[in-house]
């Protein structure tokens, strides 16, 4: 309370006392006891009202003890069930939650993790992936500034994400792993990795690489085989010793017929082997009878050129060649698509040949483009000619209808360098991306497509596309999302299929442990995206002769359905729009594979490492209760005394209002009783 406020309160007391004495003591015939009481009551009433008008503020100090957090992170993946540890894990969790010493000393926060971290103690052990790295990163965001020792109950086997040792180093909290699963070492053969392309071409041979690993101390011999149904298409005998414990096999298989071909690669188990689930893997290859050949034609050197080749060729069906303009003219018959990069006058013959043969093309414009030449040869669009350049950022058009475009968080992408000025089209076109200048969205196209007389063309009004691919990697830790975006654009331009109101996006086959997502877009009769349609998918299992109907959900600018719960089998499906008679069908195969069943033992070495690095300790099923005593007695984890200071205005103090009301009421009744009213 300030000295000024205190002075006002003293002055209010003097005024209240003066008024009370003037009313009940001044010029009274006799100074009775009743008048003194009346004066006192009036003093209290006036003084209370004046103090409320002054409204002084008081500091209210609250002192309390804050207990440290005890974080409990539980492995909820399928490997816990496979190692027969689900009952042990559930028992450990209950013991921790019910231990009175731990409850008295800590606030216990329970999380479960598989591929993601969840704030829940509900355990099902059905997660198909384990990402311990992500669990530590997300826990670090929550408990970065508090004392939070962490108990992790896991077998330590990670199937997804970066090595969790590095995330544990940055966690800055003591980690106490409770190791579940067998830590004994057994002789084991494992098909560790199988590398194969998704696509092969008819009448060719496709390469396969297999890595086989042996853990054990004895000399063993086995056989590696690849089968199709009951037929063996490849086999090789292998020998291992304790030191010579891995083999890399490289071989080729023929692609004789078109379609999806399923194979099974297996290592024949040895007699002493306990885990046979990791001895085999299924894989599939889609055999196609054509390959898309794309030419990039440019007269300048730029990082975009190499980026485009790398991005396009992530799909094995596509091959990219770099050509000069005259070379491209002579090879047009062999090309399915031509990418024209920053054209100038030397491209005149090429543009004439493309027009004559009605070839599809992608034109990329930038600071080195000759716009005078472009405006002369282009029949469908013109670009304003200026000598200035501008940086344009992209904004996604969610109503784009030609194919499904996923939102790659385009607004986080760096700007493209382009010539200042607006393009104008003389034919109907659709913008995939709009231009955005700083914070201002425009309706000008940054990337647009159009179709005239069966010929498709796309125009990108900017260079430095390589920066987008780099930013996409920063956002997602891989190039897949951006490469898929470029792949869809190339697929659209390399094809002459007519536009459909219902478009589907799915793979021909999926690994059993992967996310199985089918995306769809539905457009009204004006080819505008319709977000009010109800789409359903009817899934039929070809082997079991069963079917089910599942609704799509709207997500961003497309509809999606998650089929990750389906077992391995061959499936046919039909997607239907309920309000209109429009449907589309397809087929896909789910290969049998569960990565969580590839482990025989708990990964003791990694769990031990993260415990030692964080000044924690590791425990097993037979001694984990000693951890409770250790935590309860550890002097590092003490309650922290904290205080909070609140500034409370007197007007919020209801008792003063009650006191004023009571004094006025008593004074009135006493005056009434004595006949003074």
Chain-averaged pLDDT: 86
Which bin fits the share of residues in helices? 25-40%
Structural class of the helices, strands and pairings? alpha/beta
| Low-pLDDT regions | none
The spatial strand order of the largest sheet comes to 16-15-17-18-25-24-23-20-21
Could you describe the 3D structure shown?
The chain is α/β, with parallel strands linked by helices and 677 residues long. The protein has 16 helices and 35 strands. A nine-stranded mixed sheet has the order 16-15-17-18-25-24-23-20-21. A five-stranded mixed sheet has the order 4-3-2-5-6.
What attributes characterize this protein structure?
single chain, 677 residues, 9-stranded mixed β-sheet, 5-stranded mixed β-sheet, 27% helix
Offer a quick outline of the entry.
The chain has 677 residues and is an alpha/beta fold.
Helix/strand layout:
Layout: H1 3-24, H2 33-54, E1 57-66, E2 69-75, H3 78-82, H4 86-98, H5 100-105, E3 107-113, E4 117-118, H6 132-142, E5 150-154, H7 164-169, E6 175-179, E7 188-196, E8 199-201, E9 205-215, E10 220-228, E11 231-240, E12 246-254, E13 259-267, E14 280-288, E15 292-298, H8 303-312, E16 318-323, H9 325-330, E17 337-341, H10 348-356, E18 361-365, H11 371-377, E19 381-383, E20 389-396, E21 416-419, E22 423-425, E23 430-437, E24 440-452, E25 455-461, H12 466-476, H13 480-494, E26 502-505, E27 509-511, E28 517-522, E29 535-541, E30 546-551, E31 553-555, E32 558-562, E33 569-577, E34 582-591, H14 604-613, H15 625-633, E35 640-649, H16 654-673
Parallel strand pairs: 2-3, 2-5, 5-6, 8-14, 15-16, 15-17, 17-18, 18-25, 27-34
Antiparallel strand pairs: 1-35, 3-4, 7-9, 9-12, 10-11, 10-13, 13-14, 19-22, 20-21, 20-23, 23-24, 24-25, 26-28, 28-32, 29-30, 29-33, 31-32, 33-34
